[in-house]
Amino acid sequence: MSRTYVVTGAASGIGKATAERLEADGHRVIGVDIKDADVVADLSTGEGRTALVHEVEQRSGGRVDGVIAVAGLVAASPVTVGVNYFGATATLEGLRPLLAGSDAPRAVVVASLAALEEVDEGLYERLLADDEPGARQEAERIGTATNAAGSSAIYSTTKKAIAQWVRTHAKDPEWAGAGIALNAIAPGVIETPMTAAALESAEGRAALDAGAPSPLNGPAAPPAAPAALLAWLASAENTHVTGQIVFIDGGAESIRRPERI
Ligand SMILES: NC(=O)c1ccc[n+]([C@@H]2O[C@H](COP(=O)([O-])OP(=O)(O)OC[C@H]3O[C@@H](n4cnc5c(N)ncnc54)[C@H](O)[C@@H]3O)[C@@H](O)[C@H]2O)c1
């Protein structure tokens, strides 16, 4: 049966592949992005988040079946805090009322394998406290500092925080209690514009491989792979998976922390 999905980050990479996959399966997709989308909204701002909810309400007639929050960026900047964490939670919370009319409501957000990196404790605390001005201040302080893996400490901290948000809220009356499955996926390296520059050089590929060793089918999966996982987690078929962070990384997570069950 045809369903209506909202996909943020629909203009590029994983979000675009997800929208294409869902449409190919006969569903309706309301794509959201800062450019080239049905709903053009800057999810780093309060105005953009309000516009997202308003526009999706108008276009959907007040009912959607799935919300898939993919939009994100990797820049070492406070804007990354605004999109990856507060933009994602605003998408999920803001559109949750529209899921109430669905008989199989689902929500999924894209975290990252980077969530396994050491976090910046000051920023992590402000994110979990839902304090956006405080979190942006922490991001200003961090600046371009990197974590032990050599990537932006801001990026990895926002991704761990959004994964924790899913773990915390999935069981709540507003989510599981309302029949809404709420999950995250955590990709390793996916071939998209976000990783294109690094994947161009042998050095860049080696650095990515070191952080995300991928014995299953090699490094750098095509975006169709996470798109298929997102489509299933957001489908009516997913009746009992919730509160999970599903790694799609060719085995990297199991190599990095094999003791975790
Ligand atoms: N590519 C990877 O290897 C990888 C790995 C782990 C996680 N991820 C995550 O997957 C998601 C998608 O990334 P991608 O690789 O497809 O990158 P991408 O750059 O191809 O796509 C990201 C999309 O988000 C949109 N976006 C950015 N800022 C926005 C804003 N302020 N408001 C609205 N939309 C905005 C962009 O316009 C773009 O269309 C991101 O959350 C990213 O962190 C990617």
Structural overview:
With 261 residues, the protein is α/β, with parallel strands linked by helices. It has one domain (4-248): Rossmann fold. Helices cover 45% and strands 13% of the residues. The chain has ten helices and seven strands. The protein has helices at residues 13-24, 46-60, 78-99, 121-128, 132-142, 153-169, 193-200, 202-211, 224-233, 252-256; strands spanning 4-8, 28-33, 39-40, 66-69, 106-110, 181-187, 245-248. A seven-stranded parallel β-sheet has the order 3-2-1-4-5-6-7, with helices on both faces. β1, α1 and β2 form a beta-alpha-beta unit. α3 (78-99) runs parallel beside α6, α4 (121-128) packs parallel to α6 and α7 (193-200) packs across α8. The N and C termini lie far apart (36 Å). 46% of the residues are buried. The mean pLDDT is 96. Bound molecules: nicotinamide-adenine-dinucleotide. Residues 9, 11-15, 33-35, 42-44, 70-73, 83, 110, 112, 187, 189-190, 192-195 line the site of nicotinamide-adenine-dinucleotide. Keywords: Oxidoreductase. Pfam families: adh_short, adh_short_C2. This is SDR family oxidoreductase.
